[in-house]
Amino acid sequence: MKNTAHYQMCRPWLIFILSLSLTLLFTPATAKVPAVIVFGDSSVDSGNNNLISTLLKSNFEPYGRDFYGGRPTGRFCNGRIPPDFISEAFGLKPAIPAYLDPAYTIADFATGVCFASAGTGYDNATAKVLNVIPFWKELEYYKEYQQKLRAYLGNKKANRILTQALYLMSLGTNDFLENYYIFPTRKSQFSVRQYQDFLLGICENFIRELHALGVRKLSLTGLPPMGCLPLERATNIFGQNECVDEYNNVALDFNRKLEKLVIKLNSELTGMRMVSAPAYDIFYKIIKKPSLFGFEVAGMACCSTGTFEMSYLCSQYNPFTCSDANKFVFWDAFHPTEKTNKIISDRLIPGLLAKFSH
Ligand SMILES: *[C@@H]1O[C@H](CO)[C@@H](O)[C@H](O)[C@H]1NC(C)=O
């Protein structure tokens, strides 16, 4: 009896202490932003394509063989991709779930969510090539997410998360390599410079819409040294399978224009804090001086023959796939290994922390 009374008396305190420790547990004091939210293509897709009808998938072995539990997730990688490393560095979860994945709920998405779709681009026509999620649709999904988050947490809490979250955006390679340089339509309409400007116009509108929806912290990744992707090297038969300079120069040009856009929008959009992530330089350095970073192979990928395979062509039944992906800069013909992703992320993270953790 005595004990029960004592318990009754203490109960409000117990509940208070319990809820306090739960709050501390689930919103880690170390988190520098409340959430990381991702838009883009396969460079940042954590598995949305698993749920749509496209041939561009990677939710089977050997993809994911170095991920937690050796599990293929739909990431185009043997392990984690840059948003995962960035989320972890900001004190949040070490892997960002895909918005369409039914294994997760809005409770999971409250601290990070990915709307990206492998194979997509700024240009609507690019998403059509492999029947993936068009970029405008990623924005529609984001709007739906905002509604769900408000219904789940209430307007005040949800709006705080949406405004203070770090947003990552990474795409553009497919517009050139899966669309402009492959199909005649865009080439007949635009010179490559005009096409860059066309894409940047779409990018600008997208960011203006994000800003109107409350987004304030945004890191924009431009193009990688896309002439050095193993697939492009493999087709450069008259150039001894070296990097395709033309594509790298287009990427550099595009990135310079993107930087100008960032400066312009930072000054025009009230409260906006945008950066362009300088990923090209470190990526290029890894490719040109792989041994400096502990790699043995940069010209070919780990998966299969390392020249043209990705998605279903990179399968577990292929006997040529390398045994140690850490020796390779590229995992498949189009995508870096986890180790490359980590080195690139480690180069970007200090700048992101300095800019966005307050
Ligand atoms: C892309 O398609 C969407 C949906 O049909 C449309 O609203 C948008 O204007 C298109 N974008 C461009 C640049 O044509």
From TrEMBL:
InterPro entries per the UniProt record, alphabetical: GDSL, GDSL_lipolytic_enzyme, SGNH_hydro_sf, SGNH_plant_lipase-like
UniProt-listed CDD domains: SGNH_plant_lipase_like
Entry superkingdom: Eukaryota
Keyword field: Signal
SUPFAM superfamilies in the record: SGNH hydrolase (SSF52266)
Keyword Iron recorded: no
GO function term, MF aspect, one: hydrolase activity, acting on ester bonds
Keyword RNA-binding found: no
Signal peptide annotation: 1-31
Family from the record: Belongs to the 'GDSL' lipolytic enzyme family.
Protein name per UniProt: Lipase, GDSL
Source organism of this protein record: Corchorus capsularis (Jute)
